[in-house]
Specification:
This protein has 475 residues and is an all-alpha fold. The protein has two domains: 392 residues, Growth Hormone, Chain: A (Up-down Bundle), CATH 1.20.1250.20; 54 residues. Helices cover 80% and strands 0% of the residues. The protein is built from 20 helices and no strands. The chain is globular. Pfam families: MFS_1 (PF07690). One of its GO terms (biological process) is response to antibiotic. One of its GO terms (molecular function) is transmembrane transporter activity. Belongs to the major facilitator superfamily. EmrB family.
Length: 475
């Protein structure tokens, strides 16, 4: 088995008579972590097709509907670094499990919501649970799979969950809303959350606690404000335009909060994110690469969804099926990259993946006006494959550059920049579609800019991602 060689100790496969138990234990941490991560990302996109029905049944205002969709992502992105800091201090398994409990209970509250304000509050709490889950997920994988090859495969499968969940959200949401009702969009999280919690408590080792590291609450407040304000401004930019006073004010306040955070971190004894980590070219470069490929991929998913639903008249279910080529490639690419990384190292995989994804988006941009669907299959496959193929190496680069004591902070930084990239890609795509002379021009421009982001990420990867890590050389 792929992970048996490294689960826990990095030793070789056990004897045949104990292999089943060993294999189960080697796969269980990955299943637990991926289940939690899948829930978090699924709830970003699954809600979109349910919102019209929710608005009618709960008599929600337009503002209420916006908070139901955006409130979750605001809290999620805003508290990621806090979740990472808590994991490094209290133990990543403890914080991860707490996040799963918060997320699962708040999902049940969402499903039982009697009114729109109640649902908004439940979604905000759900976002907090998500922010506790995600940083610990990568830190727990790094702890569970110390051997470089198996760790790369684990990171690859973890990363593929994001693409699968994001693209499957509209498909699953449309199916549930049209058959059993919108409340099941949240109820499906309950069995997944319970299974995730049981697997984690049984098969994932306890993480070390560092109680001597105090939490710097002023810095925490500053970084939460910075990320939340920036995410909110990006969300509004897609609707109001980039020159809107509210958008400009949000960006300005986010910059001010970031400056306050940086000044506080320079003086703090126990920083949320040690600025010394950012001096590592692999750490800072890997974080920017994550921002760029999320910008390209989620911008593509957003604009493609609008193309299929509004321009071609596909249902939500049909749109999910139309996006399936991109989804199918993510899992295949993550497995393949995990197998190749031992031979090649991370840099060739990240560079080639980014260039392939760029080729996919450029192919869509060059496909002409109203191309037949079969002509779009190859570009979507290239984008999905390339993004997932590169994610394994970029994740390993960021996590490998951080000391074990700051694995939660490194994971939080990587995922925060990715969330900002996603929000920027969606906002820019929405702005281009709204302001272009016609829908096709806006879509093609969005795809071309996404391709440019991927090419930029490839160049950055060539400079920042190590050719071959020491762990890979040793193995």
């Amino acid at each position: 088995m792929a992970f048996a060689e490294s689960a826990g100790s990095g030793e070789s496969l056990p004897s045949p008579e104990c292999a089943p138990e060993s294999e189960r234990r080697s796969w269980a941490p990955l299943l637990a972590v991926c289940a939690g991560y899948f829930m978090v990302i699924l709830d970003v996109t699954v809600i979109n097709v349910a919102v019209p029905v929710i608005g009618r049944e709960l008599s929600a205002s337009l503002t209420g509907i916006q908070w139901i969709t955006d409130g979750y992502t605001l809290v999620f992105a805003g508290f990621l670094l806090t979740g990472g800091a808590l994991g490094d201090r209290l133990g990543n398994r403890r914080v991860f499990c707490s996040g799963v409990v918060v997320f699962t209970v708040s999902s049940a509250a969402c499903a039982l919501a009697p009114s729109a304000p109640f649902l908004v509050v439940a979604r905000l709490v759900e976002g907090l649970g998500a922010a506790l889950i995600v940083p610990g997920s990568l830190a727990l994988l790094q702890q569970a799979y110390p051997a470089p090859t198996a760790r790369s495969r684990a990171f690859g499968l973890w990363g593929s969950m994001a693409g699968i969940a994001a693209s499957a959200g509209p498909l699953l949401g449309g199916l549930l809303v049209s058959t059993v009702g919108w409340r099941w969009v949240f109820l499906i999280n309950l069995p997944v959350g319970v299974a995730c919690l049981v697997l984690t408590l049984r098969y994932v080792a306890r993480s070390p606690r560092r109680a001597d590291r105090a939490l710097d609450w002023p810095a925490q407040c500053a970084v939460v404000a910075a990320v939340a304000l920036l995410t909110a401004a990006l969300n509004e930019a897609g609707r109001r335009g980039w020159s809107d006073p509210a958008v400009l004010a949000g960006v300005g306040l986010a910059v001010s909060a970031t400056a306050a955070f940086a000044m506080r971190e320079r003086l703090a004894r126990s920083p949320v994110l040690p600025l010394s980590l950012l001096r590592s070219r692999a750490m800072s470069g890997g974080a920017v690469i994550g921002l760029l490929f999320n910008f390209g991929f989620y911008g593509m998913v957003f604009t493609a969804s609008l193309e299929f639903q509004h321009q071609r008249g596909y249902s939500a279910l049909g749109t999910g099926l139309a996006l399936f080529p991109a989804v199918a490639m993510t899992m295949f690419a993550s497995v393949l990259s995990g197998r190749l990384t031992r031979r090649t190292g991370d840099r060739p995989l990240v560079v080639s993946g980014m260039l392939l994804a760029a080729l996919g988006l450029a192919g869509w941009a060059a496909a002409g006006a109203d191309p037949a669907y079969p002509l779009l299959v190859a570009p979507m496959m290239a984008a999905g494959f390339g993004t997932s193929f590169a994610l394994t190496g970029s994740t390993a680069t960021v996590m490998g550059a951080a000391p074990p004591a700051y694995s939660g902070a490194a994971s939080a930084l990587f995922n925060t920049t990715r969330q900002i990239g996603s929000a920027t890609g969606v906002a820019l795509g929405g702005s281009l579609l709204a302001t272009a002379t016609d829908f096709t021009t806006g879509l093609r421009t969005s795809m071309a800019i996404g391709a440019l982001a991927y090419v930029t990420a490839a160049g950055l990867a060539w400079l920042c991602v190590p050719a071959k890590s020491e762990g890979h050389r040793a193995s």
